[in-house]
Fold these 2 entries.
Entry 1:
Amino acid sequence: MAASGNPCGACKFLRRKCTDDCIFAPHFCSQDSSACFAAIHKVFGASNVSKLLQNMPFADRSEAVVTVAYEAQARLRDPVYGCVAQIFALQQQVAILQGQVMQAKALLARSMVTQQTFGQPYHGFADHPSILGYTDTTQQT
Amino acid sequence: MAASGNPCGACKFLRRKCTDDCIFAPHFCSQDSSACFAAIHKVFGASNVSKLLQNMPFADRSEAVVTVAYEAQARLRDPVYGCVAQIFALQQQVAILQGQVMQAKALLARSMVTQQTFGQPYHGFADHPSILGYTDTTQQT
C-alpha cells in the first residue's frame, strides 16, 4: 500500500487490492507510475517482475524496477530491437571514437618526432600521457 | 513444427504439441534452442513474446527473437541491471573516449601553433581534418 493510503500504481493498473506487503508499492507510488507499470506488464508480465523482485534484496529492487521499466519502454518504442538498438548504436560510436583516438595518437607521435627533429623541446605531452599511452620520458631528470 | 518433424525448441520446453503454424518454430529449430527459450520464458513469458512476434512482419521476427534472447540472458546473469548494465558501461566508455578525442584535439591544435611559430610548414592535419573538426586551411592555395 502506498504511503498515501491509496493503492500503488501497479495495483491500480491491475485493479487489485493493494496490501501492506505489496511488492510493487515501494516502487510505484507516484501519480504516473500506473503508465510505467503498464509498459512493464505488457512486455514482461506482472508475475515475472514480481518473482524477479522477490529473488533479490530489498535494497536492489528500486534499481531493478528502473532498468526493467527502461527495457520495457524501449521494447514498446522499438518492438524488434528494444534497448539492444541502443547497445548497437553505442558500440558503433565507441568504434568510431577509438578510431579517432588512434588517428590522433599517430598524429601526435608524428608531431613529436618533427619537433624533436627541429630541436624544439616539447613539453605538451607530459601533461597528457594518457593520450599517447605512455609517459613523455624527455621530462625525466 | 520444425523442418525435422520434431517439435520446435519452444514447444519442447513448454511440453506442448508443435503445430504447423507455431509462431516459435521458425526461430527455435536448433538443438540448443530449448535452453534459449527457457531464458526468454522465464524473463518475458512465452505468451508475451508470442504476442510481440504476432504484431510484427515475419521478416522482422528472427531479429526480434535474437534481441529478446539477448535481453533475457542478460537479465538472468544480472537480475538488477540486465543489459542496461552494458548500456551504462558503453556510455561511460563513450564519455572517456570523447574526453580523449577533445584532449588530443587541443594538443594537436597547440602543436600546430608551435610549428607555425617556428616557421615549419606542417602538412599532417590536412589528411585528417576529422580529428581537428576542420580542414587545415594552410594547405589551400
Entry 2:
Amino acid sequence: MKNSFIAVLVLLILSGCNDSKDDSSLKINVFNDAQIKNSMIKALEWQEAHPIFAIHPTDWTNGAYYTGVARAHKTTKNMMYMAALKNQAVHNDWKPFKRLHHADDIAISYSYLYVAINEKRRGFADLEPTKNFLDAHLYEDNSWKAGTNRSKEDKTILWWWCDALFMAPPVINLYAKHTEQPKYLDAMHEYYMETYNRLYDKDERLFARDMRFVWNGSKVDRKEPNDKKVFWSRGNGWVIGGLALLLDDMPEDYEHREFYVNLYKEMAGRILEIQPSDGLWRTSLLSPESYDHGEVSGSGFHTFALAWGINNGLLDKKHIPAVKKAWKAMAACQHDDGRVGWVQNIGAFPEPASKDSYQNFGTGAFLLAGSEILKLQ
Amino acid sequence: MKNSFIAVLVLLILSGCNDSKDDSSLKINVFNDAQIKNSMIKALEWQEAHPIFAIHPTDWTNGAYYTGVARAHKTTKNMMYMAALKNQAVHNDWKPFKRLHHADDIAISYSYLYVAINEKRRGFADLEPTKNFLDAHLYEDNSWKAGTNRSKEDKTILWWWCDALFMAPPVINLYAKHTEQPKYLDAMHEYYMETYNRLYDKDERLFARDMRFVWNGSKVDRKEPNDKKVFWSRGNGWVIGGLALLLDDMPEDYEHREFYVNLYKEMAGRILEIQPSDGLWRTSLLSPESYDHGEVSGSGFHTFALAWGINNGLLDKKHIPAVKKAWKAMAACQHDDGRVGWVQNIGAFPEPASKDSYQNFGTGAFLLAGSEILKLQ
Amino acid sequence: MKNSFIAVLVLLILSGCNDSKDDSSLKINVFNDAQIKNSMIKALEWQEAHPIFAIHPTDWTNGAYYTGVARAHKTTKNMMYMAALKNQAVHNDWKPFKRLHHADDIAISYSYLYVAINEKRRGFADLEPTKNFLDAHLYEDNSWKAGTNRSKEDKTILWWWCDALFMAPPVINLYAKHTEQPKYLDAMHEYYMETYNRLYDKDERLFARDMRFVWNGSKVDRKEPNDKKVFWSRGNGWVIGGLALLLDDMPEDYEHREFYVNLYKEMAGRILEIQPSDGLWRTSLLSPESYDHGEVSGSGFHTFALAWGINNGLLDKKHIPAVKKAWKAMAACQHDDGRVGWVQNIGAFPEPASKDSYQNFGTGAFLLAGSEILKLQ
C-alpha cells in the first residue's frame, strides 16, 4: 500500500497536465476540502520561494498573484496567506508601481486594501499611496485619455487593452467601498464603458485583447488559421475574473450594477459553451487546435469566475460538473513541489505554454479558482 | 524496513502535538544530538521560508525569533544560523523598530549585538541605532514613565507588562557587557524593579501579565473559571526566559545579581511544580483545563530557562527528566516540514492554539529550548 | 523497485562527497542532460532559500554566485535563473558594492550586465551605477594604485590578489563589449598585466594568491609541509574561471587576446596534470595530502574552465573524461535537498572543507561547471 503511494508520488514528479493516467492512479479525491486547501497552500509556498515579476515586485504580475492570495485568505482564513500579504505590503511600503496612467500599476493595491480591511492594527496599513495613485489615474489628464499619445495610435482611451479591466476596476471598486466614496465607482464605470464599447464583441460575447484584434472588415484583420477572430483565453479571463471581483464588492443598489451582472452572465455562458472536453481552455478560445493543450492562467480566471457565479446565484448549479472538471484538470497541472505549471508566459495574445512554464499571476489564478471551488462543496 | 520508515514519514505528516502513538512509532531517539540539531535547523529553514511579523520585520516577534537563532548559533556554531542573522540585520539596516519608549521595539537588537560580537569584520555591524534607542528608552522622559499617559491608565511605568522583561533587559544587559558600561545595567535594574514590584505575585511565584490581572480584592478581579488567578504561560515564559538570558551575560559580581538569581529560582521551582504530566504547559498555568493542550511558545521559554538553570548549576540535575519530557513533547509538535505548531497566536492572556498555529517567536522559543537541551547531554 | 529507489534517496540524505558506494548504487546517469539540469536547479533553489554573504548582498560572494546563475541561464534558458537574477538586481537597485577601488565590489555587475543584455524591457535595467564604478575603478587614482597604501605593504597595485582577476576583468570585458567601448578593455589589460607579472609563477604555471605566497628565496618564504610552494585551489580557480569568462566575450581580433589564450592553455594544462584520481582538486594544489578531500568551489571553477576550453576548441577533446570525472564527483557533493557541500569557507589560502560547508560562490562554481558540462554532450 505504501509502495503504491510512493509510486504515485514518484510518477507525479514526472507527470504533466491532463496526464489522466497518473491523475486517475492517484487515489485522492481532489474535491476533498483538505486536498484543495493543501494544493493551494503548496502553490503559495512554492511561489513565495520563487519570486518573479516583469519589472518590479509591485507590478501587475504580483498584483494578480496577491489578489489570488487575498481571496484565498478570505475563504480559508489560513494565516500563511495573511503573513505573505503583510510581508509584501510592508516591503513595498504600500506603494503601487509608478506609471500613474497605467492600470497595471495599481493592481497590487487590491492586496493592500485587503490587508488594511482585515488587519486592523492601528497605524499599520498605509493607503495614502493608493489614494494618490487613484486620484491621478482617474481625475488627472494624460496623453492616453487625451488621445494625443501617438506611441500607439490605438491608445486613445485610459484602459485600451482588456487586461486593464482586471487591473484597475476591482481596486477602485474596493477602495470606493472601503472609504465609502461612490464617486470612485462612478469614475470607474465611465472608463469601463469606453473599453467595453471598443473591445467587446457582442456576437462572440468575448473581448478582443486590444484594437489590433478588432475586425474592421479590411483584409489586414487578424485571423486565426481557421479564419476565426483571435480571442485570447487569458485576456478574457482578466475580464470575467475582474467582473467576479467587482460584483463581489459592488453595492447591491449601485445604479449600473445590472450592466456588470448582464455582462458577467453573457460571458460566463459563452465561456462554458466553448470549454474543451478535458476541462481546460486553450490559449486561443476559438482556435483551440492552434495550441492544443490546457493553459492554467486563463482557465484559472474562468474557473474562479464561474464558481463565483454559482456560489452567488448568478449561474445555474447545473454547471457545477463543468467547473469541477476544470479544477480537477488544473490540479493535475500542479507539480509535486507545488509549482503551478502550464501557464502561458507574459504576452498579449495566444501562445503555447508547457508543463514547466509558470508565472506568479498563474499561481494567483490557481488560488482564485481554489478559493471559490472550496465554497462549491 | 524502508517501508516502515516511509510509513512513519507519511504518518508524521498527519501527526499532531503529543500524538504519542506516532511519536513512539518513530524509532528515533529525540535526545540524540544529531536529531536535536536537525529539528532545530528544520525549524529555522521553515521559518526563514515563511516570514511573519506583527507590524514590521524589526518588531518584537522577530526580536524573539532571532534571539533564538542567535542562541542556537552560540551552541551549535552552525553557519546557517549566522547567515540568517546577518541577512536580517543588513536588510534591517541594524535598526530597532520605532517606538523609543516601547520595550518591544528594541528586542531585535539582541540579534544585532550577537552578530556584532561574533562577526568581527571591520565596518560590518552598526550598533549606533541600538545605542540611540537605548539612550532614549532609558534616559529620556516619556508619558509612560511620567504616568501622564492616559491611553491606558495602567501604563504609568516604562515596562508595564511582563513580556517587556524579555524584550528589553537582555538587550540592555548584553549592550552594557559588550560596551563595558555598567550604567546601562543600573538603569535596567531600576525599571526591572518597578515591574517586579507591580506584577510579581509572591504567593504564586508567577507574574501577572499586566495590571488587568492583578487582584485588588474587588469583585471585578479577573478570575479563571476555577476561581484562580489568571497567569499566562507565555507571559511567564517571557520573564523566566529573559532571566536566563540576563544571568547568562550578567557579571558575576554585579551588585543586584542575587536578586535575579533568587527570582529565577523561585519561578523555576514553581514552573516545575505545575508542569502537566505530558510535559507541556497549557496557556493558562493555573487553569490548564481551560485549553487542555500543550502550547509551544510558553513551554519553549520554560524549557529553555529550566535547562539553562541545570546547565549553569542553579537548578538540581534531578529535574533533567522533567526538562527532557518537555523537549520530547515539543519535538512532537513540529511538523514534518519543520513548522513548529501548537503556538498561541499574538495575544496578552491565555487562548488556545492548534496543530497548525505558528509564529516566529514560537520558533524562537523552540530554538532557545534546543540550544540548552543540547548541553544537557 | 520503488523500494530501492527510496532506499537510495534515504541513503543520499546521509551520503557525503566522493561517497562512491552511494554514488554507484544510484542508478542514474549523472551525464544525462535532465539529470544535470535538475542538479543545477536544485542548487539554485537551495541557495535562493539560504541567502548568505560576507558583508552585503552585493558583495563578491553573490557576485560569483550570480555569475554562475547567469551562465546557467545562458545555457539552459530556464526562466528560474532569470527570475532570480532580476529579483536580486532590482532589490540591489542595480548597484555594485561600495569600495570603488576594490575589484570584489564590482563582481555583482556581471549579473546586472547579463540581465540588461537579455531582458530588453525599456527602462528596466540600470547600468549607470556600474558605469560610474568602472570609471572610478579604472580611471581615478587611489592609494593602492599609487602604492601609498601602507595598510598592507603589498597593496601597491590595483589587483594585488589573484581572486581579483575573476571579480573585475570579466565585468569590464562584458561592459566594453555591450557598450562597444574598447577603451575599457585596454584599461583592464594594463591592470591585468600588473597582477600577472607579480603573482604568476611561470615554472609552476599557477598563481600565488598574493605577495605573501611569492618566494623571494628568503627563509621566511611560506612553504607547505612537503616544502612545496603554496598554491590555493580556489585562488587559481578564480583566475582560470575568469579567463574562460573573459575569452568568451573578448573580440576575436582584440590585440592582446593571444596573451589570454596562452595563459588559459598553460594553466589548463597544469590543472589537468595535477587533478587527483577521484576527480576533485584539494584546497592545496601542490600539497593535496594537507587536506585530503575534494573541495567544490575550486574544483567547480576548474571544471567550468576546462569544459569551456573543450567546448570552444582551446582544449583537446581527449580531456573530456577528466572533466566528466570532476563533474561526477562534484554532483556527489550535492546534498539531497540541493545544498552544494564541501565548499571551503571564505579565506585566502588552503583550508579544509566539510560535507556541510557551503557558500553561495560554491554554488556559483557548481552552476558554472554544469553550464559547460551540458555542452559537452
